[in-house]
# Entry
Amino acid sequence: MSAKIISGTEVASQIREELKQEVTALKEKQGVVPGLVTILVGHNPASVSYVTAKQKTAHELGFHSIQDDQPEDISEENLLKLIDKYNNDPKIHGILVQLPLPKHIDEKKVLNAIDPDKDVDGFHPVNVGRLMIGGKEAKFLPCTPAGIQELIVRSGFETAGAEVVVVGRSNIVGKPIANIMLQKGKGANSTVTIVHTGTKDLEAHCKRADILIVAAGVPGLVKPEWIKPGACVIDVGVNRVGEKKSEKTGKMVPILKGDVDFDAAKEIAGAITPVPGGVGPMTITMLMKNTVKSAKLAAGLA
Ligand code: NAP
# Structure
């Protein structure tokens, strides 16, 4: 039987609709407007498109949103001063510095200067620690892993007691999603294994997984026969494997593939995310969710 396709596009649009209603109610009943600033240094075309997409969504949800463009040659000192300004701005609840930064700026120093209570990306060491502690301590979950958890929960898969295998141990996907799934609580409480290039028998671990989360960045790494029949497969990988002509615009566009052979895997899995249209659309949505939470926390409403 063919697997249920978990559409990140649909789930993201559902969450955005919920957020829109929440933002309207916050404004009307509490006079609270979530505020998000995105800081862009220079004109890297990919960064410009990411920041534009974030601002567009923030605007659609009714946020107070600011796009702060800074020149490529801004000094580290001035960038730190700018972050300090937004740290102290009560109208701003989320600060996002678009990466990568120019080489003369220490990225780590800049990200660590963001007030952890406005770190809606969830990468500040304080928030990484809060996630480890779990429960109410975990204020802002990093956006891609938080999106993965939402996809699993909303697809109706039981996470409590499930064997979750995470392929990849990066700080932005593998480690945080493993931490999220092992917490004691709703949508988690799983038995988690992380596998990586040092793992002896990748196949054996994958075959045990009730929920298999693959974030390696290697196209087709997970073979269909490694999937347990009926498992939930979340394919985080986004790999450019070529180019094709877009039917809509006639322009050349990248062909994207995940880390799992989707066509074969969907005949074995119980549910699976496609690439594109799976995890990808969730990331910006979870950034917005974190910003709303930050605004509520600042107002003593959460
Ligand atoms: P990363 O930093 O390169 O980490 C990849 C991880 O996979 C590493 O831990 C690596 O192990 C492991 N790995 C690589 N090849 C492996 C193999 N053959 N066997 C076992 N483990 C292997 O990548 P990332 O930033 O986590 O991203 C992973 C993928 O997700 C990429 O395709 C990226 O584009 C995609 N992604 C998508 C979104 C989104 O959709 N919103 C967001 C973030 C990332 P070692 O640690 O041992 O090297």
